[in-house]
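Structure ticket #2291
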Amino acid sequence: MLYPQRCPLCHEILRKTENSLVCRECSREVKPFTGARCMKCGKPVKEEEEYCKECRKGKHVFTEGRGIFLYSGKWRRSIVRFKYYGCREYGDFYARALSIYGRKELERWKPDLIVPVPLHPRKKRMRGFNQAEYIACGVSRNTGIPWSGQTVRKIKNTRSQKKLDRDARRRNLKRAFQVTENLEGKRILVVDDVYTTGSTMDAMAMCLMDAGAAEIYFITVCMGGD
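Resolution: structure written out below.
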């Protein structure tokens, strides 16, 4: 009664008769992006293009990745409420969506371990939880792939990435992460809420590769445009 479950897209209270993680009206909008994608990072591209502008430069360290929904409109507002306004239960819906709409990629990549993008302890205390960790746990529960929230730690309390340009983001994340175990030969799936420039994924991939990981994939709820 005090904290009823709400739709992650419109934030309206879900009726008990719906027996769903999203309301009937918004369920029509729960459709993954189906247009042409970059073969590396999964961002939207023109039909005649194989790679987005950034991936054509060949700068990304990760092996391959996918974002499921476009980061705009209702999805952008949903992610903001999830991260900053205590709507933690949205993560159950996100994890289910990643498991369903990302199934083909997960079956092809065959990851050995799911690793969420970590938060610095100070930021985690302020926010109350790590949104990527919550989603990663749900994806593991839905797919059976093991996950670990301790494999990678964030040891540098970086500035928020939102207002930084691409180069500043990369500098901001330099030596920000630390791997705590040997990952020799393992295929790692990194989970986060949004993929934009790829700076976070590259920083994660570099430290995972230094720890012996063979391939690093990522999957996110949303992705920005090119």
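Closing remark: Residues 131-143 form the longest helix (13 residues).
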